[in-house]
Amino acid sequence: MAIVPRPVPGSYDEALFDFIVESEGFVSRVYTDHRGIPTLGLGYALFVDAPGWPDRDGLDDDLTAIGVSLTDGDRALLGKLRQALVRGAVTEAKALVPPFSFGEDSGQRNVLSFLISRDQGRRLFERIRADYEGVLRQRLGGGLMQALEGSQELMVLFSLCYNSPALIGPGLTAALREGRREKAWYEIRFGSNRERHKGLQNRRDKEAKVFGALNADPSDAERRALGTLIEERRNRMSDYLAGVGLGSGEIQSVLAGLEAEAAGRGTRFA
């Protein structure tokens, strides 16, 4: 078996940017994510998850490149937030810099000295895009990276890496190298949300749907492989879905949909 890539219609660059916008959400102000990390634009984290929560490498250069400079007041506020994170005081960090709320007036909730436009967000994204593509190339290998060039599958892998490079882990990379699409799909949907965060799972479900558990024209062997995976990991998947907040009826509906897809009775599932 082999993974047959699905080419992205039109411009891959545009499709990738739009996919990241939809996955991350564009926010014009600095906000705190669910871990209290100050973030801007398309999930651009200002701090690095390392001892002491240091600034991201190149932070000032990246901001300068899009016409933004941190004021002394901005740095003082971010310094207080950093100390809160060092103490593990996530609630305090979020009180200093409010999380994003859908439908908010970002200008009203902004506590730093600036807002950015979508165009500035795009330029900020392009400045760091190569860093994540480099991680992908290192983890996947040049041959696989080239084989997936311009595909929906690569777009999903980039989205995972952009969310956290650690998500391009050994289970996922092994499945990709073995050409086992169903196992790669499983890792994306059921193996990339360690904290069982319900909001994050919506993203994983979408990424898994775009990646796909079967090739566009699946063979009988591919369907059997998917069916076997579902049967072997049924209890694990049920426990996982319960962990992200699904009820028993919803869990049974998801599993039934997976079985139908494996058997060729349903439409492509999430």
Description of the molecule:
- The protein has 270 residues and is mainly α.
- It folds into two domains: 26-116, no CATH class; 169-270, no CATH class.
- Helices cover 59% and strands 4% of the residues.
- It contains 14 helices and three strands.
- Strands 1-2-3 form a three-stranded antiparallel beta sheet.
- Strand 1 (27-32) and strand 2 (38-41) form a beta hairpin.
- Helix 1 (12-24) crosses helix 8, helix 3 (72-86) runs antiparallel to helix 4 and helix 10 runs antiparallel to helix 11 (198-211).
- The protein is globular.
What are the key terms here?
270 residues, mainly alpha, 2 domains, three-stranded antiparallel β-sheet, 14 helices
What is shown here, in short?
The chain is mainly α and 270 residues long. It is built from 14 helices and 3 strands.
Major sheet strand order: 1-2-3
Q: Structural class, judged by helices and strands?
A: mainly alpha
How are helices and strands ordered from N to C? HEEEHHHHHHHHHHHHH
Q: Given the C-alpha coordinates, what overall shape results?
A: globular
pLDDT < 50 stretches:
none
Give the biggest beta sheet.
3 strands, antiparallel
Question: What's the number of structural domains?
Answer: 2
Number of helices: 14
Topology, number of strands: 3
